[in-house]
Amino acid sequence: MKSAYSEMERASGYSSRETQETEGQGGFRQFLIAWAPAEITIVFLVLLAALTYQDPTHKRLPDDLVGEWRTTDTLYADRALILDQVCITFTTGESTLSVGFIKDVKQVAEGSRILYTVAYTVDDVPNQVSFYYEASKGISFKNQDRILWKKFQAG
Prior knowledge:
eight-stranded antiparallel β-sheet; single chain; alpha+beta; 2 domains; Lipocalin
């Protein structure tokens, strides 16, 4: 009888305070029950995305690599490699440079040196460069192992 009465009240636009309180509490509870799985799923996905994209261990270069690198090899005397935590820049002579945004950095120890592979994008095109780093010697590109690059010291 109460539900039929409630339906009549709803149809007429008039409702008693008792009906509003009873239906208000039940309606909110039903709303929570209906939306709880979706809310839990959304919160879980947001946390998962935050953990996935906030992992700096794969993107960060060691401080020893940050800076400008040059070689004494005459073929590359007018070139430089510049590394920071965001970009990798290649100067290719006569004021021409290519700037890429670092997406990932991987490292693998190989004896006394470490092989770094830097994934980056230039104009939304993915690229990567691999080089060896040995603290006492400097950098040598994996495909040009005989050419040594040293950190440039201004002054």
